């Protein structure tokens, strides 16, 4: 069988039918500035061995997170994933990225999704959860769209602690759907500022805990204020592991929880694929986006699983669907569920505690350095520090010395006026030696 | 009782219109499992989607046959959505509207006209 689908003769024949002189002519309407002239500078072909050599050489230019003291977080966290997780998700019965298209025949996959939903609901303290979204940021955007449907209002207020990438994603998906997105400037511990923008046109207020700067907050009072105006409270969680230790968004009165589940069972994966967690109150279930698995009984009374409430979805409701998402992050969600099942409640709490203890050691080490100020008042496993010099250049210098010190805020939002602020995370993978090497390198760089 | 081409029925009593979906519509939808009703006090324009009826095989918008304000909804449908199948043009009513423009009555069909419409298919 030929590997390449089209021959030159095939192309000529097709072009003749539509009356175009060349394939390039089909792209004339794309502005010249947006087109690429000629071929990409790559060899046209190479043998497998050469390709492997070339790619290995390229890969060696990366600094893998596990190879150096690593303090980067800001929405993507390096955690230990037990080998058993990878082993189990690679079983052929499970190995698919998607919800199955003939779902009820795959009872095992559906049961895994059902257990996943149960875990997400328990972890977030909510009543219902879907079978997962693409990632935390798209889950947050879907939460805003859902709040607009529920309240029939258009305004969303984004808190000063929300991750800028989440705010960007919310804007991208919601503004074209008629949403008015009010994005407050970044600040370490200023969630209360959302109250100044809250009015009776507000569909929802979006807050994050721990927020971009690592600040953990209790939004119970805020939830009451938001509900008084008839709006919904959307709580974003970018570090799902924090839910093992802090009060759940459900207990705080959240209406929708949008979270990133990568921390549990999933590697950094170069930024994706990740797994978005989405949970809400039962009374809003018909406005919820995404796939939903339900438990039922068959004609003989035996327990079985089905995809349910599908009439919300695109393949049935067309343009009136609650979302254009007709899938889930199947494999990442499975990894999440397996890891969480292996941990159990006590294991989750212990793992979360290890993270917090590592961050406390990190805090003690960096605040002992002259000119370094820790800004985060209450934290889980991540802190924001103010350095005496711009953080971007300093982290580059430290990276050259084999220490990945964290994520400069300027990299996420260059206009925030927080050039000296560095976000630093510690997890159960962080050793005393890592912290010692970080402190030494930072001290030397600042001297 | 008057009808729309979108298969809603309207029963007028002064300026109050009781609205539901027709028996034909309910038969076509199959078993109704959920009805989403508008909030009392909401102002709707003729042709605007103001309720959703969901069956085991589809979810459909229900359009306001007349412009006006929603003054009552059939809360009993929340617990017993199958009332729509059992008695679509009676106990299965959706909402009552206080009609703002009686001239819109002209756009509605009488029963023979509606029956002719569904006979056409």
Tell me the layout of helices and strands.
The complex is a heterodimer of chains A (447) and B (121).
Chain A: H1 8-18, H2 48-59, H3 83-89, H4 107-124, E1 128-129, H5 136-151, E2 155-158, H6 164-174, E3 180-183, H7 194-197, E4 202-208, H8 220-228, E5 232-237, H9 249-252, E6 256-260, E7 276-280, E8 293-297, E9 303-307, H10 314-317, H11 330-367, E10 373-374, E11 382-386, H12 391-400, E12 407-408, H13 409-412, E13 421-425, H14 432-446
Chain B: E1 2-3, E2 8-13, E3 16-21, H1 23-29, E4 32-36, E5 43-44, E6 49-55, E7 59-63, E8 68-73, H2 76-79, H3 83-86, E9 95-99, H4 111-120
Antiparallel strand pairs in B: 1-2, 2-3, 3-9, 4-6, 5-8, 6-7, 8-9
Please explain how this structure is put together.
The complex is a heterodimer of chains A (447) and B (121). Chain A is α/β, with parallel strands linked by helices. Chain A folds into two domains: 68-81 and 344-446, Aspartate Aminotransferase, domain 1, CATH 3.90.1150; 83-338, Aspartate Aminotransferase, domain 2. Chain A has helices spanning 8-18, 48-59, 83-89, 107-124, 136-151, 164-174, 194-197, 220-228, 249-252, 314-317, 330-367, 391-400, 409-412, 432-446; strands at 128-129, 155-158, 180-183, 202-208, 232-237, 256-260, 276-280, 293-297, 303-307, 373-374, 382-386, 407-408, 421-425. In chain A, the strands form three sheets. In chain A, strands 1-7-6-5-4-2-3 form a seven-stranded mixed beta sheet, sandwiched between helices. A four-stranded antiparallel beta sheet of chain A has the order 10-11-13-12. A two-stranded antiparallel sheet of chain A has the order 8-9. In chain A, strand 8 (293-297) and strand 9 form a beta hairpin. Chain A is globular. The relative contact order of chain A is 0.14. Chain B has a single domain (2-120), classed as RNA polymerase II/Efflux pump adaptor protein, barrel-sandwich hybrid domain (OB fold (Dihydrolipoamide Acetyltransferase, E2P), Beta Barrel). Chain B contains four helices and nine strands. In chain B, strand 6 and strand 7 (59-63) form a beta hairpin. Chain B is globular and about 35 Å long. The two termini of chain B are 21 Å apart. Chain A binds chain B through residues 286, 311-312, 316-317, 320, and chain B through 34, 36, 49, 54-55, 57-59, 61.
């Amino acid at each position: 069988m030929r590997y390449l689908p089209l021959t030159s003769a095939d192309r000529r024949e097709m072009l003749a039918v539509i009356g175009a002189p060349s394939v390039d002519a089909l792209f004339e309407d794309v502005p010249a500035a947006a087109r690429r002239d000629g071929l990409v500078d790559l060899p046209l072909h190479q043998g497998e061995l050469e390709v492997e050599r070339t790619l290995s050489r390229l890969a060696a230019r990366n600094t893998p997170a596990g190879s150096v003291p690593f303090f980067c977080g800001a929405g993507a966290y390096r955690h230990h994933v037990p080998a058993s997780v990878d082993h189990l998700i690679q079983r052929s019965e499970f190995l698919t990225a998607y919800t199955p298209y003939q779902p009820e025949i795959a009872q095992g996959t559906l049961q895994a999704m059902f257990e996943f939903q149960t875990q997400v609901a328990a972890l977030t303290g909510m009543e219902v959860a879907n079978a997962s979204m693409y990632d935390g940021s798209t889950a947050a955007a879907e939460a805003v769209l859902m709040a607009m449907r529920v309240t029939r209002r258009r305004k969303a207020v984004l808190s000063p602690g929300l991750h800028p990438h989440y705010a960007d994603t919310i804007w991208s998906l919601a503004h074209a759907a008629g949403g008015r997105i009010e994005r407050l400037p970044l600040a370490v511990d200023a969630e209360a500022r959302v109250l100044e923008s809250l009015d009776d046109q507000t569909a929802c207020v979006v807050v994050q805990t721990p927020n971009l700067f690592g600040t953990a907050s209790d939004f119970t009072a805020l939830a009451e204020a938001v509900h008084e105006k008839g709006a919904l409270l959307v709580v974003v969680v970018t570090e799902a592991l924090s839910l093992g230790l802090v009060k759940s968004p459900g207990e705080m009165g959240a209406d929708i929880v949008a979270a990133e589940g990568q921390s549990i069972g999933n590697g950094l994966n170069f930024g994706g694929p990740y797994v978005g967690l989405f949970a809400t109150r039962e009374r809003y279930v018909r406005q919820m986006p995404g796939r939903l698995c339900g438990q039922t009984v068959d004609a003989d009374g035996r327990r079985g699983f089905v995809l349910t409430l599908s009439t919300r979805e695109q393949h049935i409701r067309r343009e009136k669907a609650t979302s254009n998402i007709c899938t889930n992050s199947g494999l990442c969600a499975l990894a999440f569920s397996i890891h969480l099942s292996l941990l159990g409640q006590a294991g989750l709490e212990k793992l979360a505690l290890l993270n917090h203890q590592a961050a406390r050691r990190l805090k003690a080490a960096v605040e002992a350095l002259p000119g370094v100020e820790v800004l985060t008042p209450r934290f889980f496993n991540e802190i924001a520090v103010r350095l005496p010099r711009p953080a971007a250049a300093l982290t580059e210098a430290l990276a050259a010395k084999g220490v990945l010190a964290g994520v400069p805020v300027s990299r996420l939002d260059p206009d925030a006026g927080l050039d000296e602020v560095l976000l630093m995370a510690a997890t159960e993978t962080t050793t005393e030696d890592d912290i010692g090497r970080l402190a030494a390198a930072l001290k030397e760089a600042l001297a | 009782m008057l009808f729309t081409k979108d298969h809603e029925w309207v029963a007028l009593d002064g300026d109050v219109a009781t609205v539901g979906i027709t028996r034909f519509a309910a038969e076509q939808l199959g078993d109704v499992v959920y009805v989403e009703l508008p909030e009392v006090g909401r102002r709707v324009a003729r042709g605007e989607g103001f309720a959703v009826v969901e069956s085991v095989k589809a979810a459909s918008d229900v359009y306001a046959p007349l412009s006006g304000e929603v003054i009552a909804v059939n809360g009993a449908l929340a617990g017993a959505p199958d009332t729509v199948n059992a008695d679509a043009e009676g106990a299965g009513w959706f909402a009552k509207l206080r009609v703002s423009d009686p001239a819109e009555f002209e756009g509605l069909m009488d029963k023979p006209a509606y029956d002719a419409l569904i006979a056409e298919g």
